Amino acid sequence: MIKNILQGIVQGLTEFLPVSSSGHLLFIQNLINLKENNLIMDVLLHIPSFLVIIIFFFNDIKNIILGLLNSNSRKKSLKIILLIIIGNIPAGIFGIIVKKFYSCVFENINVLIFTWSLTAIFLILSDKFKNNFRKLEDINLKDAIIIGISQAIAVLPGISRSGFTITTAIFLGIKREDAAKFSFLLGLPAMLGAFLIEILTLKSYIIINKQIFIGLIASFLASLFGIIFLFKMLKNVKLKFFGFYLLILVIITIILKFI
After folding, report:
1. Whole-angstrom Cα distance, residue 60 to residue 66?
2. From residue 13, how far is each of 78, 134, 232 by CA, in Å?
3. Would the pLDDT of 35 be above 60?
4. Is the distance from CB of 190 to CB of 161 less than 8 angstroms?
5. C-alpha atoms less than 13 angstroms from C-alpha of 24 in its C-beta half-sphere
6. Which residues have C-beta within 8 Å of that of residue 80, sequence separation ≥ 6?
7. Measured between alpha carbons, how far is residue 90 from residues 46, 87, 98, 115, 206 in Å?
């Protein structure tokens, strides 16, 4: 049960904080042999993160859907939906390619050291962009493709999906809160797609026992805290601190590797 709670908390926090959930799970797997956990828990952990995004951005999602029914706002809603669809195409293609090299990429601590370092650099540099003025409605096709490519690269363990897409949007001149909003709206289809693919690849029935349920509750609460904390840090222009945190983890990982 302790392992399920720990896995749920790590997944929930790091799904939203820009420090890579997959990277932390790989790190902990190597640290305390979490590999004994079954695949069902890994698959189900997508659910709390998905629900937290729906809850946190409920008004935005509602406005987009209702906008389709209003002739005055239909064009705006259709544009956002189209950009989200286009932005998810690179991740779909890249994800299929990378899956073929699963053991070489997703279980390799050397990959994690490189990708955590890269994410840290992006986060530290993003705080240099403090005066962005472009809003969510100003995001265009080129922006969606570039941010979508960032999301695709985040398939790699150690590359934070939220961190990479938010910082990329910031580099493109988009306001920090709007960059985060588009990042998580973009992530909804990606999370749902990953969940459905993993469900289909399971070779056993999903049975949610007490241990798994408690792990999912822990993940939900950690996810809620993570997304609230992220937006607070965005307003205060402090993403660099997440970058420094990742650099510390890189140093620890290198040390543990040679012990």
Report:
1. 10
2. 32, 28, 14
3. no
4. yes
5. 21
6. 64, 136, 185
7. 20, 7, 12, 19, 30
Q: What is the mean pLDDT of residues 209-230?
A: 91
| Ranges 100-104, 202-206, 212-216, most confident | 212-216
pLDDT at residue 98 above 80? no
Give helix then strand counts, H and E, for the chain. Answer: 13, 0
| 83/188 Cα distance (integer angstroms) | 13
To the nearest 10 degrees (0 to 180), the angle between helices 46-56 and 2-16 is 40
Neighbours of 235 (CB within 10 A): 10
Size (the chain), residues: 259
pLDDT band at residue 205 under the 50/70/90 scheme = low
Residue 61's pLDDT is what? 94
With beta carbons less than 8 A apart as the criterion, state whether 25 and 10 touch: yes
Tokens representing 18 are 């820009």
CA dihedral 80, 85, 87, 92 (to 10 degrees): 160
Whether the Cβ atoms of residue 115 and residue 156 lie closer than 8 Å to each other = yes
How deeply is 209 buried, as exposed, middle or buried, from its count of CB atoms within 10 A (0-12, 13-18, 19+)?
A: exposed
**CA-to-CA separations, 118 to 25, 112, 131, 183, 188, in angstroms, rounded:** 18, 10, 24, 18, 24
Q: What is the pLDDT of residue 14?
A: 86
Q: What is the DSSP string of 92-109?
A: HHHHHHHHTTHHHHHT-H
